[in-house]
Amino acid sequence: MPKPKKRGSNHQRGAGGQPRNVQPFSDEDASIETMSHCSGFSDPASFTEEGPEVDEEGTQEDLEYKLKGFIDLTLDKSAKTRQAALESLKNAFSSKILYEFIMERRMTLTDSIERCIKKGKSDEQCAAAGLACLLCVQMGSGIESEEIFKTLGPVLKKIVCDGTASIQARQACATCLGICCFIVTDDITELYSTMECLENIFTKAYQRDRDTNGVSSTHNTVLHVRALLAWTLLLTICPMNEVKKKIEMHLHKLPSLLSCDDLNMRIAAGETLALLFELARETDADFFYEDMDLLTEKLRALATDGNKHRAKVDKRKQRSVFRDVLRAVEERDFPTEMVKFGPERMYIDCWVKKQTYETFKEILGSGMQYHLQSNDFLRNVFELGPPVMLDAATLKTMKISRFERHLYNSAAFKARTKARSKCRDKRADVGEFF
After folding, report:
1. Residue 355: CB partners within 8 Å, gap ≥ 6?
2. How far apart are the first and last CA of the chain?
3. pTM of the prediction?
4. Cα separation of 193 and 197, whole Å?
């Protein structure tokens, strides 16, 4: 009589060496656990009037069981399985706070990330680098995070500087290197060493408009953009004497990147210039830039660019960015932006804060609002104070029904449609014909 199959055998590796199936961390898991783990931080509008009770203890146990399985799968023989596990861990880390769970397994996670970056292929290295960023975001600044960076920092630098590694992996590692260093390092020599590593990458773009054969070389442009943005992030936490040195070194060279064929490089260079001018004027109120007329002429041309060979979407994006950059350079002005998360508001009123916010928003994605509400490290970075705890009575008074939300959204949609119609079709207003 044949033996019965074991339960769960569908998820094990078969005799033929096929990779086991990995059920990814889903949005449903995130939403359920986020509500049960820290309901006081959730957006009141996200709650429904009536809903089933959630077994918080059971949900937390199920989540941790899943995550333990993903951590184990990062050691699997199949590259696809390892990558899927890394992506699932990334989704979990970006959508909720798991400090205690990670604290108990930080060394295991660090070893898995290090192994995937060293031995994995391009996609796996990118996923591992992204997970390393989120691991440091979860841990915040502290001794444990410093230990993680001491292990991963040399590996990341090696990949970034390795010309034989894939461009995608080098891009991901450059971003990861900048973010992790920003979060964890209190050692000024390590900060300067990391910035020097990134400088060695993006400064190649200064003289790299065309190669020796006169053919446009854009293969490494995205890598240069990533290195420049990571370097700019680290510059925001440098001592003022070091900031002055970097401004003197790069302020006259960065305008050359405004003529690059790549839109992202032009935008990165423009925003970096605005940030450098902001920092320079903080250190010296009478700061004077010799080539101001030439620079403002370039910025104005980009802010009003009408070249037909460029896509309309690219032109709109470029004009929007460089209008703000031009105002920053000429008028020392910054268009304040407001970010809403739950019952709180945060105002982005300078280029330093904008650069920091955009960096963390890119790695956290849709989890940015949740982390702004409940992540102590991010709240400290943006000077938001301790997390706001809301009791059940306060949440109830802030809630609105689905029907009220529907009416509000419908009215807003109608008003928006009318406003857009007037601007979109000018031919509608042609008068009467007699």
Report:
1. 229, 232, 233, 236, 271, 275
2. 95
3. 0.78
4. 6
Compute the distance between CA of residue 162 and CA of residue 169 in angstroms, rounded to an integer.
Answer: 10
Which residue type does 229 have?
Answer: L
Cβ atoms of 318 and 305 closer than 8 Å: yes
Residue-wise pLDDT tens digits, 310-349: 788 888 999 999 999 999 999 999 989 999 988 899 999 9
Which pair of tokens denotes residue 201? 């990458």
Query: How far is the C-alpha of 96 from the C-alpha of 93, rounded, in Å?
Result: 6
Report residue 333: phi and psi, to 5°. -115, 150
CA distance 349 to 337: 7
**How far apart (Å, rounded) are the C-alpha atoms in residues 270 and 298?**
10
Query: Could you read off the pLDDT of 118-172 as tens digits, one per residue?
Result: 999 999 999 999 999 999 999 999 899 999 999 999 999 999 999 999 999 999 9
Using left for φ > 0, alpha for ψ between -120 and 50, and beta otherwise, residue 383 falls in left
